[in-house]
Specification:
This protein is of the alpha/beta class. Helix content is about 40%, strand content about 20%. The chain has two domains: about 280 residues, 3-Layer(aba) Sandwich (Aldehyde Dehydrogenase, Chain A, domain 1), CATH 3.40.605.10; about 200 residues, Aldehyde Dehydrogenase, Chain A, domain 2. The structure holds NADP nicotinamide-adenine-dinucleotide phosphate (NAP) and magnesium ion (MG). NADP nicotinamide-adenine-dinucleotide phosphate binds next to helix 7 and helix 8.
């Protein structure tokens, strides 16, 4: 058991108008290591609404000069921040692992992705932002250009604490907006380390601001603040809907990326080893805490038994433990709340009559007793109307559902309020096309796991998984700018 050594734990401040600032509330909160609840990773400010107001005032002031810079000049700051982040990759990744539990290998991969996203959007500073449209007046020039929204509020979750803030901030900045970031409380130290890279890149005061604290206080003020022109949110459906309603009520632009209940279909002709690997990686990596995580596994009857046997063999060999230990494959849930949610869904699954095939408990291994660990869990005899097949669990829980035909698999896959990602394992081209055409999801993958988002491609969900907007790649320009149509007659 590690005891708390108060004086070796650092306190992180807000970043407002180019200064590291203590909250006016004069209150800090410890960020806990979910692999060992006795370890505090750092203290962060429990800010007040006044801190948000100060950050928004700074961002509003800074937006005039920032939007006047060329895209290439703004890009310089992103390239510099990327280079600084690259030097600190290991430290940032270690902080992420200690703060939210994903393995160090995954945390390093995510940090590297954050760096690549910064460089991708830096490049966007030199690419086209409009079109020439022939006017009916032969003496006129008509074209479109893009202008920034102004001040953008970013509200982010804890599951990708580097990649998500960056995939929102980088396009916001390159298109000329200034930013106020409110990261999830669970990962506010990691967020501070990301913002340090921008600060040390010399980004002008007020262009990037960080305010940490409770969603119901800081997030709520971002929703309501009249000087925030756009809000980009990733998180749960419950909070997302509040963000959307609040933004709509005052006419601000908003973008919501929310939950999923992502299916994988294993067809009769699938490469079963590949399908098992993709189901495990998609469903259990990061302890199932990805919005694109596989959760419902539809398996055709003829291969059901063989698939199940292969799956259980691999799942039972997965090493659960602290993400900083090299041999660990799966870390803890990110918080005690998250662990309790997962355990309560497992209980509901049993009560609903699903058969627990594997896991379902907190592990007994040495060294896991002080962490929020849960075993990788597999249910069978699940029907698509059970709660564990309908609600997002956000934990390492797979639900096996037997289906006779591909049509049945597709129908049930689509029978959900979510539509984020989906995958199929098959060698048959007509199966592939049926799946691509009929699956109601923003991301469909063939012979690949449901999780897996490339930074240069649009990302977002259908149905209740998003506000029907897309993030990342070239799609980001749609949210972070407004189109201005220009007509010029000499
Ligand atoms: P969450 O509870 O909705 O929190 C998201 C953010 O909203 C946090 O910063 C949170 O602050 C803040 N918040 C909470 N209450 C608020 C309020 N009343 N007003 C304004 N902001 C508020 O979600 P989470 O638990 O962090 O993340 C898990 C969820 O994110 C899952 O549903 C997952 O599917 C989804 N997700 C979606 C995507 C995607 O791209 N579609 C990607 C990743 C995750 P606190 O820190 O105080 O809670
Ligand atoms: Mg939360």
């Amino acid at each position: 058991m590690v005891s708390i050594v108060e004086n070796s734990v650092l306190t992180y401040k807000n970043f407002i108008n180019g200064e590291w600032t203590e909250s006016s509330a004069n209150k800090v909160t410890g960020s806990i290591n979910p692999a060992n609840k006795n370890e505090i990773v750092g203290y962060v400010q429990s800010s007040s609404q006044e801190d948000v107001d100060a950050a928004v005032a700074a961002a509003k002031q800074a937006k005039k000069a920032w939007r006047k810079l060329s895209g290439a000049a703004r890009a310089d700051y992103l390239y510099k921040a990327a280079n600084i982040m690259e030097e600190r990759l290991s430290d940032i990744a270690e902080t992420m692992t200690k703060e939210m539990g994903k393995t160090f290998a995954e945390a390093k991969g995510e940090t590297a992705r954050g760096i690549a996203i910064l460089r991708y959007y830096a490049g966007e500073g030199m690419r086209k932002i409009g079109d020439v449209i022939p006017s009916t007046d032969s003496e006129a020039l008509m074209f479109t250009t893009r202008v920034p929204l102004g001040v953008v509020g970013v509200i982010s979750p804890w599951n990708f604490p580097v990649a998500i803030p960056i995939w929102k901030m980088a396009p916001a900045l390159i298109y000329g907006n200034t930013v106020v970031l409110k990261p999830a409380q669970e990962t506010a130290v990691t967020a501070a380390k990301v913002i340090e890279c921008f600060a040390e890149a010399g980004i002008p005061a007020g262009v990037v601001n960080l305010v940490t604290g409770q969603g119901s206080v800081i997030g709520q003020r971002i929703i309501e603040h009249p000087d925030i022109n756009g809000i980009t949110f990733t998180g749960s459906n419950t909070v997302g809907k509040m963000v959307g309603q609040g933004a709509l009520a005052r006419g601000a632009k908003y973008q919501l990326e929310m939950g999923g209940k992502n299916p994988v279909i294993i067809a009769n002709d699938a490469d079963l080893d590949l399908a098992v690997e993709g189901t495990i990686s998609g469903g259990l990596r990061s302890t199932g805490q990805k919005c694109t995580a596989t959760s419902r596994v539809f398996v055709q009857t003829d291969v059901y038994d063989e698939f199940k046997e292969k799956l259980l063999e691999k799942v039972s060999a997965l090493k659960v433990g602290c993400g900083m230990q090299g041999e660990t494959w799966m870390g803890p849930c990110a918080s005690e709340n998250q662990l309790n949610t997962v355990l309560s869904y497992i209980q509901k699954g049993k009560e609903e009559g699903a058969t627990l095939l594997y896991g379902g408990e907190r592990p007994a291994e040495n060294g896991t007793e002080n962490g929020f660990f849960v075993q990788p869990t597999v249910f069978e005899n699940v029907t698509n109307d059970m709660i564990i097949a309908r609600e997002e669990i956000f934990g390492p829980v797979l639900a096996l559902i037997k289906v006779d035909t591909l049509e049945e698999a597709l129908e049930q896959s689509n029978d959900t309020e979510f539509g984020l990602s989906a995958s199929i394992y098959t060698k048959n081209i007509s199966n592939m096309f049926s799946f691509i055409n009929e699956m109601e999801a923003g991301l469909v993958r063939v012979n690949a796991e449901t999780a897996g988002v490339e930074l240069q491609a649009p990302f977002g969900g259908m149905k209740q998984s998003s506000s029907h907007s897309r993030e990342q790649g070239q799609a980001a320009i749609e949210f972070f700018t407004s189109i201005k149509t220009v007509f010029v007659k000499a």
